[in-house]
Amino acid sequence: MFTKICIPITNEPLSIYAARAALDFAHKLGANAVFVSVFTMPIIYRSQTEEDVRLELQLSTEAFLETWLEFAEHRSVPATTLALEARSSSVAQTIAEVALEEHCDLIAMGTHAYEGINRILLGSVAEAVTRHSSLPVMLFRDGLVPTAKPFDCDRILVAVDGSQATGEALDVTRALAKQLPASIQVLHVVPDVPMNYDSFMPAIDYSDLATDYMNEGKHVLKNAEAKLEDISSKEFILESAKGKRIADKILEIAKTHHAELIVLGTHGYGGFERILLGSVAQAVAHHAHVPVLLTRGVERAKTVVPKAMNVALTTKV
User: Fold this and answer.
1) Which one, 15, 206, 255, 304, has the greatest CB density within 10 A?
2) Is 3.40.50.2000 the CATH number for 155-296?
3) Would 4-141 and 155-296 be classified into the same CATH topology?
């Protein structure tokens, strides 16, 4: 499944920690690594020329990457490096493009867990990469405590909701479990019944709706079981949200079940759509105690709406 991992890196502590963990992951998979460092041109003063500044940045970036070849050799991971200037689009777009050009099948990098107004104003290169890239992206959150123990993932938790995006997440999880190997925990969180007292809304039997939600969850897990029939070590978990956000419930189950990697599907919304609608996947990535692997769905999927609602809705994970 994963034979070549793109590892974007800077000299930030978070990026260095993520790169070391990604090397451990590559070693466990028997995969190659491509270290990518993208620099941007600063303001040019009169005493300098653009060519001189670009050359200086190129050489210093290449020297920085040389040390990572040594780390990779120590971990017995075949590796190459690539130092380049950000293209006209952005650093994130450049990383996404280079990963494809280098025939990588995974991007692994650190992410700053910006929240609220900081997330809107500052954003995150890693978050932008997840929106631009068609490849799966593994995120190591700012705040994870580095340890001397190599990054391991013997237990993978994948959250599913029946959408096409989480179907892709299941496929990736299955392939990973066979390649590592690892056990799989498949989780479906049953959402709380929406209580709407708008007089213009038709009357809804909420008890029937709750039953439909639970039955739909069982159906989602049954379909997941069919996809994983060749995986020997697996567990299927059906949990109600019980007043919590879906993302918070996923994080809670991941902790109680000692998951070492969380896999989620995402539809990759951008711009105001991302700000207004949010994302279960991004919320999990911002708060997870373990790395999170995000996969992209082929297209935005529709939720399966219980019959009691009979209303067309769309969702995003």
Assistant:
1) 15
2) no
3) yes
Decide yes or no: CATH 3.40.50.620 for domain 4-141. Answer: yes
H or E element that contains 108: strand 106-111
pTM of the entire predicted model: 0.84
Phi, psi (degrees; rounded to nearest 5) at 188: -125, 125
**Of residues 155, 169, 182, 172, the one with CA closest to residue 253:** 155
Q: Domain spans of the chain?
A: 4-141, 155-296
Measured distance CA(173)–CA(156) in Å, rounded: 7
Contacts 24+ apart (CB under 8 A), 305-310: 306/209, 306/212, 306/213, 306/215, 306/216, 307/212, 308/204, 308/205, 308/208, 308/209, 308/212, 309/204, 309/209, 309/212
- Asked if 164 and 171 touch (Cβ cutoff 8 Å), the reply is no
Record the tokens describing residue 51, joined without a space: 């060519």
Nearest C-alpha neighbor of 188 from the set 211, 208, 214: 214
| pLDDT in 10s for each residue of the chain, 317 residues | 899 999 999 999 889 999 999 999 999 999 999 999 999 988 777 777 888 889 999 999 999 999 999 999 999 999 999 999 998 768 999 999 999 999 999 999 998 755 444 443 334 788 889 888 999 999 998 766 555 566 778 999 999 998 888 889 999 999 999 999 999 999 999 998 876 555 555 556 667 888 899 999 999 999 999 999 999 999 999 999 999 999 999 999 999 999 999 999 986 555 444 443 347 888 898 889 999 999 986 543 333 333 333 333 333 33
